[in-house]
Amino acid sequence: MPTHTFTLNGKRVSVETEDDVRLLWVLRDLLGVTGPKYGCALGVCQACTSHINGKAFNPCCVPVGQIKATDEITTIEGLPATVDRDLHPMQEAWLDHDVAQCGYCQPGQIMAAVALVRRARAAGREITDADLDGLRNVCRCGTYSRIRAAIKDGATRM
Amino acid sequence: MTEPGRRRFLAYLVAAPTLAVAVPYAWDLADPQAAEAAPTPPQPEEILDLGDVQNLAAAPTSGLITVRVHTDGTASFAVPRAEVGQGMTTAVAMMIAEELDLPLDRVRVTLADARPELLMNQLTGGSNSMRSMYRPVRLAAATARRRLVETAARRWGTAADRLTTDAGVVRAPDGRTATYGALATAAATATTAPAATGDLTPRDDFTVLGTPRDRIDARDIVTGRKVYGADLRVPGALPTMVRRPPTINGTVAAVHNAAAVQAMPGITDVAVITHGVAVRGATFGQCIDALRALDVDWKPGPVAGQSDDTVAAALAKALPSLGPAPLLAKTVEAEFTFAFASNSPLEPEVAVADVRPGAAEIWASLKVPIVAQEDIAKSLGLPQSAVTVHVTEGGGSFGRHLFHDVAAEAAEISQKIGKPVKLSWSRTDNFRQGRAHPMCVSRVRAAYRGGDVVQYRQQHASTKTDFSHGLGEMITANLARLPVAGNATFAEIIFQLTQSSPYSFGDTRQVLTEIPLEFHTGSMRNIYSPNVVCAEELLVDRLAAAMGKDPVAFRRAYLRDDRLRAALDKAADAGDWGRPLPDGVAQGVGLHAEYRGAAVALVEVDCRPETVNRPIEHGVTGPRVTRALVVVDVGFAINPRGLEAQMIGGMADGIALALTSSLHIKDGLPLEGSWDDYFYTRQWNTPPDMKVIVMPNTRDTPGGAGELGVAPAMAAVACAYARATGTMPTRFPINHGTLSFEPLPAEPSTPQSPTDGLDRTF
Whose CA, among A11, A157, B31, B193, lies 20 to 30 Å from B285? Predict the structure, then answer.
């Protein structure tokens, strides 16, 4: 079985499994990192959203064989360390707006939100309602309006 | 503020190393709303509603529930309920914090295992949790506080009534203090004995209850630390999935390549089970590969020949006539069809089972864990006491976890292969083989003479709703006590207990008729109300128009309930009812009273072509709710912030049910297989302006809140759509007639995961 080595939340990890096993299962089933959630494994619900080299992606749609040794994967567990704090400002905004209900989608929502704000900033602008409308993450509890408020607030703190 | 009935309670000091106080988990008396005078006689829901029945069922069989105080100064409580996002654990922690005088962050609330002696007291449903726990949990905490004070008084040789408490510390007038943690051991008892109960805090002195609080599990959620069923790590419980039949509840005829599949990478076991073929392996991804590789012949399920059209025809045939209208009265009449809908939560169904010879251990998010325990024990051939059922935190439920079919399936697989399993359904399984809200038809008619509405009739025909999770058993026990005459079925009783027209429309009758199709159905958040209320409210708008009245003014004039009227006035004012809007944009209002609560939704829907046709990749857009307001009165709002959250979620559900989300049944299987087929509300359909107003408390006790917002929200969206387009929709959701996606194949039952994730980063 091939060995796959990459950086996960700031640490080098190695794992043995077949090349075509999607990264989500490598994280959850083999490495025990369960912040990224399984919601569909179809690239639709976005509950597993994490970051690869700082960009948002769905680990459920990436065979681990495509991950390079130089890739840096960040899950919700590693997000605060990217800003050297106990909580990322977006997580703080989530707490201040008491966004979560069941909470299952929220790690993915937060990871997507951070990437959305970064993308807007890279384009030299702030997030808009159109950006928020384009977020695909499903929340079956329907917390969407608090998510929107938290992202706008979190963006001001980033 | 009096607390009627508290003298009935007896508290116990329970033998334990640190202070433990238990009280019977008893019912609180139903306090029927004063039924208003004729012309409309009180309907069953107003005398005794579903939550009250659950409380009655609880009465003679109550076990004890226990609040514990620990040496670290924290308190803990294992609540016999499921937490699935409704915020129940936060509200219960608030009750304990209030009466124990302890900061909220020092109260830990966990979910109790199945406790058979609690019988139907351990059922999460009918928006009943707050109502049934409000008094007993507070009483246990108040008694614990009293015991801590008495313990300090003994230690200091002073009178207990000279001592006070403050945030987890007992204080004496001379300045001496002792923390609860320091008193917890001394306050404990070696033998369980009755104890004098503490006094409940009067409502006017509350500092925690009734104040907006954040979720106690919020930090764990946003850091990814909260452990759901899918995240459990039980030794040896490897990922397990099931290849499922191409019709609902079909069965296996033959498997042709089990050995070859078992030899696939990572796979440890293949086993035929009741409704499919299970595979167990190192990762869920390898389980997906394996189940897709299985070569299986299937036997059809019980509804293999059914499609949307055949069910609609059966409903039309079953729908009774509305009967004669009063002489010389004018009438408005309408008929509405509501498609099947899915109650699937975001967390795919998951259960861990470790079945050994002579014993079994189960982990799952279960709203009726005792029934699960009983049923699984029977299936495994074990005594009930040999099956331990742990209730895990759930990633949503919306009614789905009333059923324990997934836990039972995990147990079946574990027993068959002799190893622990972590069974997960796939997303597609959830939509196609999960629980559906039944397709139904509502025929409504109002008759008026001059300025008076003299008759209201509603015939509601529905595909059978499965209540086999135990609600039936509970109702049976209390059948004789219900004010429902005749040989009503359980479903009819639930219908009568939850449905009640809020209007003074004279001779009023709402009747349920079920057709016995064996779809895999179940209660979905708010059960019958979204459909029944939507139909009634659309008719009320028609009636108001026919009688030349404004929709809000008309409703106001005919409402029988003062709380609803106050909420409606508030909504009309805060929502700027009647404000000028462009053509194609309109307001709509919907209202509903249930579970001792009242809610009014007021929305604005934009149906202009540029909005309806806004492009979103792989999504349906359609009309957009641009402003949404919910005004809610639940009597006493334990946690207004949590209550707001429930209303926001109710609005998202209502929008989905009115506009976008449904299951299309074709040849015995839903076509929907992913969240891009089943169009639950997404960001692009979320109201940019969403507001909730919690009315000042009108009662001393909390009503139900988890479901209350759905029905008025759906009705308001439907009414606004009708006014914006000038056409009253008669089929819901409005986009159901157009299939807006390419269905995933029926076989293999779970699609392969994409591999292009790195092309879609952002």
Answer: A11
